What we know:
Blueprint: H1 3-9, H2 16-36, H3 44-55, E1 66-70, H4 78-84, E2 89-93, H5 97-109, E3 115-118, E4 132-136, H6 141-147, E5 157-162, E6 175-181, E7 184-190
Parallel strand pairs: 1-2, 1-4, 2-3, 4-5
Antiparallel strand pairs: 5-7, 6-7
Amino acid sequence: MSLQKRLETENIKLSSMFYSRVNDYTEHLMRWNKIHNLTGAKTVKEIENNIYDAVYALKFLPDIKNAIDIGTGAGFPGMILAFALPETHFTLVEPLQKRTSFLQFIVGSLKLSNVTIETKKIEDVKPTKIDLITSRAVTDTKLLMKLSHEFIQKDTLLLFYKGTSVKEEIDESQDYKIFERDNRRYLLIKSK
C-alpha cells in the first residue's frame, strides 16, 4: 500500500505539496545515505515507514506555531512534520555536521521557509518560547525533560516517540497521554 493510502486510511489528509516534498526528500536521502550513512533506513520502504511514523502524530496534535526537534538525525520526525505543517516553524537540532549538511540541502532545494537547522546539542541552543518539543530515539524521557527544560513553559507540549516500555519512563505526576500504534508509543506531555 502506498504511503498516501496508508495515511488516508488513518484519516490523515495531507496536501499534494507534502507528497511532492516527501518524494524529493526520499530520493535525496537514498543518495546521501549511500555515502554519508545518515540513517539506518536504507530502502524506500524503510524511509516511508519513518515518514508514516512521524506524521501519525497529526492525529492527536493541536495547532502549533513553532516546534523544536531534539536530535533530528536525518529529519525524523522534525523535517517530515515541517513538510506536513507548512505554517508551523520548526527548529531541527542535530549535533552531527554530516546530518545537518543534508538537512540544509533539503531546506535549500525544497525552498522551505519554515525550517531552521541548528548544528548543536540542545543544551547549546538559545532558549525561546516553543509550543511543541519533539524527539525520537534520543534518550529516556527524564533526560529529555532535563535537556529541554529551558524551552518548556506553561502549556508547552512534549511529544516523544517511544517504544513499548515507555511506562517505565513516566512521572505519574505529569499531565500526559500515550497514543499506541503497533510497537510505537507516542508520549504526549503537557507542561503545567
